[in-house]
Amino acid sequence: FGRLTAGVSLDEAKAEIATISGRAAKVSPKTHEALRTHVLPFSQSWFELDDPGNAWAFRGLQIAATLLLVIICVNIAVLVFARTATRQGEIAVRSALGASRSRIVAQLVGEALVLASVSAVIGLGLISLAVSGVSAVVVATGASGVIPFWMKIAISPATFGYVVGLSVLGALIIGVV
């Protein structure tokens, strides 16, 4: 990783890094024969190095997965809302027997938290299967030479935290509504 000096263009940086890598390849051909140097803006995807169509395929996959998740979330929200609407009689009986609003809401939030937790575990399980499948495809196709060494195909701890946070937030919203 580097930063361009003020006044240096991207093409000048590409020419300079090509010269440096060419010298290194001549000096140490055994260690540098498989290395490729690239100069590209940080915002440009490394998928675009070999084939710009790869980046669009990857973005399309991300968009499709996101839309699928939105559809699933809306369907679950409708099912939970319909389930809650059919429980109006039960909630009325609980209120008549002396249960406070906070007690009823706490029960509904607890039930929603269980549902969200089970959904999160199932989702993380499916994602881990998908990630291991992608890793296997990358290794099988030899694309691991294209992927930079600092990129690991794995589920990050931040993803787990994000899923837990969304599950709790979703449970609170479903329970209160």
Structure overview:
The protein is mainly α. Helices cover 72% and strands 0% of the residues. The radius of gyration is 26 Å and the shape is elongated. The chain starts with 9 loop residues before the first helix and ends with a helix. The model has no long low-confidence stretch (mean pLDDT 79).
Low-pLDDT stretches are: none
Number of strands: 0
**Order of helical and strand elements:** HHHHHH
| Fraction in beta strands | under 5%
Instruction: Quote the distance from N terminus to C terminus.
Output: 48 Å
Envelope shape: elongated
* Structural classification: mainly alpha
Instruction: Give me the number of helical elements.
Output: 6
Task: Round the mean pLDDT to the nearest integer and report it.
Answer: 79
**Helix content, binned percent:** over 70%
Radius of gyration, rounded?
26 Å
Biggest pleated-sheet summary: none
Helix and strand arrangement:
Layout: H1 10-27, H2 29-32, H3 52-86, H4 88-96, H5 101-141, H6 157-176
Helix pairs in contact: 5-6
Sum this structure up briefly.
With 177 residues, this protein is mainly α. The chain has helices at residues 10-27, 29-32, 52-86, 88-96, 101-141, 157-176. Helix 5 packs antiparallel against helix 6.
